[in-house]
Amino acid sequence: MLATQANRALEKSSKRAGISLIETVVALTILAVFVTGAAKIIIASQKLSDKAREHYAAINIAKSRIELVRTFEFGQVDNFLEDKVLVNASGAPDVNGNFRRTTTVSEVSSNLLEMAVTVEIRNRKKLAFTGEREQLRTFFAEYLTEESSVGGGVSPNSI
Asked: 51-65, 112-126, 133-147 — which is least confidently predicted?
């Protein structure tokens, strides 16, 4: 009788050990699924963050170019024309730059110019410029004085 009770206790403990092993495998499988999903989300958010950082840098490159031109006289704006110049994230020319800047100027009227700065972003996987870009436009005006205007202009004292 004592031996029978010992055998039953042994059978129960061995059955329980088997269930524990199955539970452990199931738990690890569920954990693996969740960890894989979390890893995919982290990788996707990292890629999105990198892309946003590149577009932010491209906008700053264009803004810096426009602000640089603003420090010069109206007649010197044409000196800043450029076509597909490779630049780094600071906007400085760099043959290994991840950005390509183009600056165009068009005449709207005799005293008004429109400037467009386009910054293309290099695709890091393909190592080529594949169409991602940012573009900023602004206008530059030459202020008319009484002597330079055809109709006489506005005198500062007439206001």
From this structure: 133-147
Three-class SS of 115-146: EEEEEEEEECCCCEEEEEEEEEEEEEECCCCC
Closest by CA to 144, choosing from 136, 134, 154, 159, is 154
Query: pTM of the full predicted structure?
Result: 0.69
- What is the total count of domains within the chain? 1
SS3 content of the chain, % helix, strand, coil (to 5): 50, 30, 25
Residue 22 lies in a domain: no
Is the Cα torsion angle 124, 127, 133, 134 positive or negative in sign? positive
- Pick left, alpha or beta for residue 50 (phi over 0 → left; psi -120 to 50 → alpha; otherwise beta): alpha
Residue 32 covered by a domain: no
Q: What is the C-alpha to C-alpha distance for residues 32 and 22, in angstroms, rounded to an integer?
A: 15
Look at residue 34 and tell me if it is in a domain: no
Residue 103 to residue 139: CA distance in whole angstroms: 13
- pLDDT top residue among 121 and 146: 121
Distance CA 56, CA 60 (A): 6
